[in-house]
Amino acid sequence: MAVIPPPARDVKISSSMPIETTAAVLRAFGRPLAIEPVTLRDPGPGEVLVRMVAAGVCHSDVGQADGEWEFPLPAVLGHEGAALIEALGPGVAGLEAGQAVVLSLAPGCGACAHCVTGRPIRCQRALRAMTNGELVTGASPLRGAGGPIAAYSLLACFAGHAVVAAQSAVPLPPGVPAEIAALIGCAVLTGFGAAVETLHVAAGTRGAVIGLGGVGMSALQAALVCGAEVAGFDPQSERRSRAEALGAGTAIDPDSEGVEDLIKKAPEEGFDWSIVTVGNAPAMRMGIDLTRPGGKIAIVGLMPENVPVPVDFLDLVTYEKVILGSAYGSVSPEVLIPRIVSLYLSGALPLGELVSARFKLDQINEAFAASREARGIRAVLDISSAGPSNLAITSDLPAYHPGP
To answer: Is the pLDDT of residue 388 over 70?
Structure first.
């Protein structure tokens, strides 16, 4: 399995015109993405140009393509990526051309109360820019044949190149495979942070992870590292088998009769905590109902807009349960990503187990179909050769090649 190379310090980039690249463009909700030529402006102040190497297919991308949330179109989706820096905009410090990075969708503005206390995912300026398909540093850098194109989640990873805020580029040490680095950018960060930062899972506790996709498997691995006993819940037998192989004490089909029995026993024998990674009401109710009195529930899955989830508030109050939202690992990616990388390199987090399928960029609709059908755990796109560029590169950068 290839790795993203260490910084190539002799790489020099020159660009005197818009950067041409290839992207998967969403032009209508519920329709396939189209592979199209697009252009990117040069990186402005506080921005960097990156060459995409790998991108994970998150179910949030699929839900957005299906129109579960409002978003300006046309758009380039993708928010889980690994890349190489090709050029720096004015005023960027601490990064250099050729450097391998994980892309983060939580750069923040750096000045508000949320950012200065290490919670950039709550930054309202960044969230407004995200909603509008822009960057926190300015307008979307993307244009197509018909005009501007929105950048999804401040990144737009499903393209050969991207211009992003410099704060979105988190440096990587040598030795991390590109596909693993991409997944750290969302699935791993989100699941790991839900267990470690939102719930502060303690050794010896018993917990449930509802949904065993990329985020759920990451939460499960994190809880195991913390010394907890974990039960996984997922309708897919392949995922349940993988969870047990990774160390889950048990893996249960949520549609099985045994779940009702667990819920009935929850007041005396329920789980200390649960993490719900699935964006639907039955999964969220299950996460609440399976926990004991005084238990904590972290909700990670994203519900479609304007879809309510019924909660029995008499049960919530009487049993003193605590329901917490957990977004993108909760703490700053610049803090959490290096911790996750360190655990991965030490062998404590077997993140390679998350990658279940690999596709090229022009196979993105196949990858989306796999996600919709919950096939495997996480699909990864190889974007290392997505299209031409008019950048003059004086030293070649090694290409990414998918692992076996």
So the answer is: no
Q: Using a pLDDT cut of 70, give the percent of the chain over it.
A: 91
pTM value is 0.89
Instruction: Name the pLDDT band for 308 (thresholds 50, 70, 90).
Output: confident
Tell me, what's the pLDDT at 208? Answer: 98
User: Whose CA is closest to 105, among 86, 131, 85?
Assistant: 131
13-185+331-393 and 200-325 share one CATH topology?
no
The CATH code of the domain at 200-325 is 3.40.50.720
Task: Tell whether domain 13-185+331-393 is in CATH 3.60.20.10.
Answer: no
pLDDT tens track for 173-204: 999 999 999 999 999 999 999 999 999 999 99
Domain ranges of the chain: 13-185+331-393, 200-325
Q: Which amino acid is at 85?
A: I
